Backbone:
């Protein structure tokens, strides 16, 4: 038994009013089309995925899947509708090589692998030639309506523009997902052009298969969110909201506390440990992983980062491609740029920016600092306003701060430079040379104090007034 999947993605998506092809639009930072492709991969026995592309979407889609060995491409020369798109897809398969063909639109990102698996299983056990996945929609207007015979079997699908007022009241609609047996595929050639739109509608295969005495079934689902098809920006937002709630509710079921499921945007695939608490307005993206018992306060965005257990991320902090080890605290108003590694129990505080640097155990940079291209040891104190001067306009240089160092406030460390173990740097110093272990380095100008200078300068003038 062999199964292939054909995903229709050549359409323009005119209703998006966009220069970007519809299915390339981003949903939680991934193109819409990647979701159905992932769902198909979860189905047992699918050995090939054909993506039907067109002139407008070709370049972008080929780029998205260039490293995916399961996905191949079929080119639809003219956008003549969904039936023509499927024929373009099958054209690359050396004619009926597969027993079953799973067909789906590329614009329905909430579809789950289990649902597709269930549809295929039903198709096979029912001995069907065509199985359509339908669902009950609270707002059916942008979908084809499923017409059933008095006995309950599916008769045909009528697209919204072709439906009568009476037919439009039907709320069972076509999801755009189908399974075909090998014997149904030749019927694609019998589909006539739709007079109103000048397109060949794949949906017409239902009535044609019925006329030819083939077994057609519509499997009706009730969770409409799973089948949201994105045609417009409003539907893109609907899909985003549905995906957000699905993820948020799953996380809560797994032991994560959310204070506001509506403003918490967590990308599917982000992992969060138990007893972590997430305040409103938090965004967690990409391959982010968060350990147990963390607290993430409001207005935090974390991208592609690993946060270990018991970390506190305080308000308005941005963390990108970084790692924060257990028990550390970051923020408020901190920025961890790519390559920051914050050690266990370390503290990164207000208005501190860290890039491509490692901070060791219990090290603290609590206020107003820039640490770039630095390796900072354990138990280091970095005073307020400390800056690593890592860039000379051409090259970047490294700063090494060894264990137990104390850097006084408002110091500049001009790299390349090393501050040896246990050394002190006096406040306000500009350090341009290595400081040996246990030494004190001071580079500020010695203070001059002139007693009674103010009186001498201003006393006569003050007396005048
Ligand atoms: C289609 C179905 C409708 C169903 C809905 C579910 C038809 C005629 N209608 O309508 O019954 O309720 O999906 O979301 O099939 N595409 C191509 N080439 C084309 C035209 C479309 O590849 O020439 C692709 C699009 O990129 C898209 C998919 O096919 O991914 C569906 O096309 P779309 O225009 O979105 O169809 P709907 O009007 O939503
Ligand atoms: Ca659609």
Residues:
């Amino acid at each position: 038994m062999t199964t292939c999947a054909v995903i229709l993605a050549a359409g323009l998506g005119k209703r998006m009013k966009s220069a970007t092809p519809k299915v390339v639009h981003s949903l939680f930072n991934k193109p819409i089309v990647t979701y159905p492709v992932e769902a198909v991969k979860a189905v047992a026995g699918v050995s090939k995925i054909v993506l039907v592309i067109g002139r407008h979407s070709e370049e972008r889609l080929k780029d998205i899947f260039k490293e995916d060995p399961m996905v191949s491409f079929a080119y639809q020369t003219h956008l003549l509708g969904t039936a023509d798109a499927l024929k373009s897809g099958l054209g690359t398969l050396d004619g009926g090589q597969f027993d079953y063909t799973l067909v789906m639109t590329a614009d329905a990102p909430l579809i789950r692998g289990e649902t597709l698996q269930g549809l295929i299983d039903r198709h096979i056990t029912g001995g069907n030639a065509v199985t359509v996945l339908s669902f009950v929609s609270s707002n059916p207007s942008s979908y084809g309506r499923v017409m059933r015979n008095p006995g309950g079997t599916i008769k045909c699908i009528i697209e919204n523009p072709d439906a009568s007022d009476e037919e439009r009241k039907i709320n069972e609609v076509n999801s755009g997902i189908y399974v075909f047996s090998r014997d149904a595929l030749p019927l694609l050639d019998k589909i006539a052009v739709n007079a109103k739109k000048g397109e060949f509608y794949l949906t017409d295969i239902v009535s044609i298969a019925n006329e030819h005495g083939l077994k057609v079934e519509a499997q009706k689902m009730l969770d409409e969110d799973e089948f949201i098809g994105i045609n417009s920006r409003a539907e893109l937002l609907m899909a985003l909201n549905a995906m957000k709630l699905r993820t948020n509710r799953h996380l809560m079921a797994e032991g994560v506390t959310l204070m506001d499921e509506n403003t918490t945007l967590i990308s599917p695939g982000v992992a969060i440990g138990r007893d972590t608490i997430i305040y409103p307005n938090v965004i967690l993206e990409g391959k982010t992983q968060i350990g147990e018992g963390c607290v993430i306060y409001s207005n935090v965005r974390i991208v592609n980062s690993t946060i270990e257990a018991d970390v506190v991320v305080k308000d308005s902090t941005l963390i990108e491609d970084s790692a924060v080890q257990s028990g550390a605290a970051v923020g408020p108003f901190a920025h961890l740029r790519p390559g920051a590694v914050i050690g266990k129990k370390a503290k990164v505080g207000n208005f501190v920016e860290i890039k491509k640097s490692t901070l060791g155990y219990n090290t603290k940079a609590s206020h107003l600092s820039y640490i770039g291209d630095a390796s900072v040891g354990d138990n280091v104190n970095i005073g307020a306003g400390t800056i690593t001067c890592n860039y000379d306009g051409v090259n970047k240089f490294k700063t090494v701060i060894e264990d137990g160092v104390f850097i006084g406030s408002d110091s500049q460390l001009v790299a390349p430079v090393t501050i040896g173990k246990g050394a002190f740097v006096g406040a306000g110093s500009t350090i341009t040379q290595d400081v040996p272990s246990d030494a004190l380095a001071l580079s500020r100008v010695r203070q001059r104090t002139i007693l009674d200078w103010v009186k001498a300068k201003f006393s006569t003038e003050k007396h005048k007034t």
